[in-house]
Amino acid sequence: MRAVAKGDRAAFEELYRRTSPWLAVRLRRRCADEQVVAEVMQETYLAVWRAAGTFAGVAANGTAVGWLWTIAARRLVDAFRRRAHHAQPLPVAEAVAPAAEDEALARSLGDDVGDALRALAPELRQVLQAMVLDGLTVRETAVLLGVPEGTVKTRARRARIALREALT
Predict the structure, then answer these.
(1) Which residues form the domain of 7?
(2) Residue 152, C-beta contacts closer than 8 angstroms, at least 6 positions apart
(3) pLDDT tens digits for 87-140?
(4) Residue 21: its pLDDT value, please?
């Protein structure tokens, strides 16, 4: 990121080469419209190129990938808002099978927590993923999932209660 911040195009190309497949998969899991995914990818990497100097990962103990995902998730929420404003709902990607990142998370958290996460209803797991893993606000999660903010809060509460019961 330091090299990208200094305007090193080769470093930026390497960052893109290493992260774009992963980022595209994560975005596609949240939006089925390929055009929107492509626009969000472009906006994200443009923002990274322009703001690489503001990345404080070393001082904040963060990672470039986490920072990249935060930018992309916010750009996706913006795309949902733009479409909602123009009354064109975006098709939300349907989860057919657990994603590799969900499986890895469940394995890394241990058997009990992993089992508890897998036992959650999909709509509860989506809210937890958006708010906890992706770091989105209640409002951003509501826009991303296409549900009211109150529903997001209720699902988050239900998920916490279910996890607490499963782990006690």
Answers:
(1) 1-94
(2) 127, 131, 138, 141, 142, 145
(3) 555 455 554 445 555 555 545 455 677 777 778 888 888 888 888 877 788 888
(4) 93
Quote the number of domains for the chain.
2
Structure tokens at 57: 């990962």
Give me 152's structure tokens.
Answer: 């997001």
Distances, alpha carbon 83 to alpha carbons 22, 33, 121, 146, 161, in Å: 24, 12, 28, 11, 34
pTM, entire model: 0.58
Whether residue 132 sits in one domain with residue 83: no
Tokens of 161: 């209660």
**Which among 105, 98, 110, 162 has a CA at the least distance from the CA of 134?**
105
Answer yes or no: do 128 and 51 share one domain: no
Based on the fold, state whether residues 110 and 85 are members of the same structural domain: no
For residue 108, the surrounding DSSP H or E stretch is helix 100-108
Element (H, E) at 41: helix 34-51
